[in-house]
Amino acid sequence: MCGILGGNLFTNKKQLLTAQKLIMHRGSDAVNITQHCGVWMGHNRLAIQDLDSKANQPMVDDLNSLRIVYNGELWQNTIKKYSYLRREFPFKTEKSDTELLLYMYRNFNKSMVDYLDGMFSFAIHDHIKKEIVMARDWVGRLPFYYLHKYGGLAFSSELKVLTESFPDAAKEVKMVQPGTYCVYDIETGELTTKQYYKIEDNIPESDTDIDVVTREIRGRLTDAVHNELIADVPVCTILSGGIDSVLITYLLKQHIPDLKAYVVSVGGGNKDDLHFARMAAEWLKIPLTEVIVKKSDINKKLKESIWAAEMDSWTQITPAVAQLFLAKKISEDGFKVVFGGEGADELFGSYGNIQKMYYKQDTNQQARINLIRNLHKNNLIRTNKAMMYGGTVELRTPFLDKTFAEYALSVVTIDAKNHLHPNGFVDINWSNKGHMKYPLRKAFEFLLDVGMPEELLYRKKETFQVGCHTDYLRDEKEKMTRIYNKLFKFPVVKKEKSKMVESKILLKDKVDLKGVEEYLTYPVHVLGAMEKPKFDTNDIELLSTKFSKIGKTTLQKFPNLKTVIIRGHGHDLINKEMCDKKGIKIHKLNQYTDSCAQWCVDKIRQGPVVVYGMNGIIGSHIENILTLQGVEHFGVGRSTTLDKEDVKNVKTVISCIPYDKFDYKNNENFFCKKLFDIYTSPIDFISISRPATHNNDDLIEGLLNKKFNSIYIDTVGSHNRDKLLSFSSFNYTEHTSWKYKDMEKYEFLKLLKDTIELTSKKV
After folding, report:
1. Superfamily holding 593-740
2. Gap between the Cα atoms of 660 and 666, Å rounded
3. What separation, in Å, do the N-terminal and C-terminal C-alpha atoms of the chain show?
């Protein structure tokens, strides 16, 4: 069990570290962050399988083409079935299921989800396909949230990470649904979802013979416990005294002779969880740790429980608050894994007064399917979050083993004709021989012969909060809702006015402000690139531009300018030297870095490749892509020369060197005849550098003399432009490389907001 987060909506390491601290309770055995091509990934590890540091995450494959962050476990059947992949791929770990997942994706692509048995939520960043794939197991045992906004993506194991990191978009956070995977296209910003599993499509035909039914239930549940019993750390069990936890504990003890059990209770009472847990522990001859909590301690934990469970329903918070204390004790005793009986009530339809509504022969199965389908919204994620927050303890629930669950839902629990009820018909109050879940009780009736008290086998169903005595908190449900709304709704609060807020903002080159008006409480001017301001420019403290140059003349018009935000790409947009002298802060968006790099790489027909400016932002991204694709490449600076042998083999030359006409002209006419003559064979020339770096006359001469197979230039100067365009091998893309991906809106608006807040604080 772990905590995962990431995506390209996160803009810097500090932001991700702040977010990561919010889920530190999900694992602190290893805490790591990586970034590649604008996509951040973070992982808080609770080490359970393969404790070696080589199994830490984010994990990368041998080609550096895939990165994964993963929360969960793969069960033994999957690990054994696909162990052959360890012979086909260069695994670096001995038995990490994370690495197995990684190479299953390499081998099967997205269809790998069809072959997985386990509890999981994971995200894979495919560098080559420029995708992020998010997936969740069939029933949704583990929480998984995402925010898809302004074409960007952020994901996390818990809601609080996204609502705290992006409070303006808190209401837009969604949950990855069980049995689905989502594919986020980094280039287009689009998100698609595919459902790979539906429980109703996988339920087998019902058995009608009671002996067959009980034999199958007993055998499949036994297999489920064994299947999930995989860990390199000590394992314990929750023993509430209900039939579900008793059966799981009994089956576990067959594998763990020194098994320890835990029960939680607020005080104690007649015929409650504590009473029946003691009875079960005595019969099973296992040590029972009783976590006895005072009401005063429970009351103090109410707000913390809401923060942990991320819910406001009293039906969820009342069990969660007890689970915090339970998990804390389990963790203090050195356990990281605990088994529980969750899921049985939904599978067999045992839920108090709703039984009267659900226990109809013609609607029973569908009612139970609905309970299972919705289980991830409440009990499952509540219990997971509460146990992880209270003590960083992983809960396993064998009743929700896929094979067992599919069969259990096929069982006709109320069909008199098939004799699944001891009296031959359904009666909500049927005797002292149990309270629903008859097929499950019948399957383990043989335990009465080995000393199991009849009271245990036929104990009436009680909810967790009733059994442990936290149900009195239902009177606090209105208070719970108020606390939740304050913690997670994040209502917009207007900031106190400051000098920055009172001043004016000028946005050159129009940008759409729709959706962010809520925090734009200060006057804003938005002008086109060629429009002149018709107001007092002395008031302007923040200026943003995308294409318009900010030179000496412009800066003189804005004497009180404090901040400049550059939304475009290129060194020649602003006079940095003059800004430094005036103390003007410069912020640049690099949202087009990846797309410019990819545009260059897409034009490469073959290697080896020479990249001028590889030490720059775009150049380094080009290097990463070429490395991932296995293309031979060289980085070259002004004073660096290539070996003669290297020169002979070069097929492509890429230019991404800077040009800043305000500060220097060192690179003017850099790409000229003298440089092109270095290459003895015809080359493909690709450039995203400014027009001043190219000598158009020398490009024309090279085209005439067959020095170039082709030329791709994103920006072209006016000198002899028409002549250049007359060559069929000359391709001018009209400065479109930056359009490959448009994250401008979100990145710019967030930077604008952060800048205003920062400046306001300083004032």
Report:
1. NAD(P)-binding Rossmann-like Domain (3.40.50.720)
2. 9
3. 45
- The pair of structure tokens assigned to 294 is 């005072």
Number of H helices, E strands in the chain: 30, 28
* Cβ atoms of 541 and 522 closer than 8 Å: no
> In what order do the strands lie in the sheet containing 394-396?
288-293, 261-266, 235-238, 337-339, 394-396
Give the closest residue to 69 by CA, choosing from 164, 144, 176. Answer: 144
Q: From 555, 495, 545, 537, select the one nearest 520 (Cα to Cα).
A: 495
Contact 433/439 with Cβ under 8 angstroms? Answer: no
β-strand pairing of 174-175 with 145-149: antiparallel
Q: Helix H segments across 402-542?
A: 402-410, 438-443, 454-457, 464-468, 477-488, 499-502
Backbone angles phi, psi at 447, to 5 degrees: -65, -20
Helix 314-332 to helix 379-391 angle, to the nearest 10 degrees? Answer: 40
State how far the alpha carbon of 406 is from the alpha carbons of 115, 220, 363, 644, 665, in Å: 16, 10, 17, 68, 71
φ/ψ of residue 720, rounded to 5: 55, 30
Q: How do residues 60-75 score in pLDDT, each as one tens digit?
A: 999 999 999 999 999 9
Instruction: Please choose, from the candidates 649, 614, 655, 656, the residue with its C-alpha nearest in 3D space to the C-alpha of residue 632.
Output: 649
Domain ranges of the chain: 2-197, 209-346+380-409+441-488, 499-589, 593-740
Asked whether the beta carbons of 279 and 456 are under 8 A apart, the reply is yes
Helix (H) / strand (E) element for 554: namely helix 552-557
Between CA 763 and CA 761 the distance in angstroms is: 5
Block residue for tokens 């420019």: 537
Instruction: Tell me the DSSP string of 30-76.
Output: EEEEEEETTEEEEEEE---S--SGGG-SSEE-TTS-EEEEEEEEE-H
| Amino acid present at 585 | K
Report yes or no: 518 and 168 within 8 Å, Cβ to Cβ.
Answer: yes
Cis peptide before 608 (omega within 30 of 0): yes
| The CATH number of domain 209-346+380-409+441-488, selected from 3.30.1490.20, 3.40.50.620, 3.10.450.350, 3.30.470.20 | 3.40.50.620
Q: Is 242 left (phi over 0), alpha (psi -120 to 50) or beta?
A: beta
Q: Are strands 504-508 and 394-396 parallel, antiparallel or unpaired?
A: unpaired
**One fold for 2-197 and 209-346+380-409+441-488:** no
Low-confidence ranges of the chain (pLDDT < 70): 269, 351-363, 413-435, 489-536, 539, 546-548, 567-573, 588-592, 594, 637-641, 659-666, 734-763
Helices (H), 185-284: 210-228, 243-253, 273-284
Assign a CATH topology to domain 499-589. Answer: Rossmann fold (3.40.50)
3-state secondary structure of 362: coil
Contact between residue 310 and residue 317 where contact means Cβ atoms under 8 Å apart:
no
Distances (CA, A) of 631 to 284, 605, 626, 644, 651: 64, 11, 5, 19, 11
DSSP class of residue 207 equals P
2-197: CATH class: alpha beta
Pair type for strands 145-149 and 152-156:
antiparallel
pLDDT digits (tens, 9 = 90+) for 44-54: 999 999 999 99
Q: Where are the beta strands (DSSP E) in 298-355?
A: 337-339
* Structure letter (DSSP) for residue 240: -
- Phi, psi for residue 713 in degrees, rounded to 5: -125, 130
Q: Is the pTM of this model over 0.70?
A: no
Model confidence pLDDT, tens digit, residues 321-357: 999 999 999 999 999 999 999 999 899 877 644 454 4
Judging by beta carbons within 10 Å of its beta carbon (0-12, 13-18, 19+), is residue 726 exposed, middle or buried? exposed
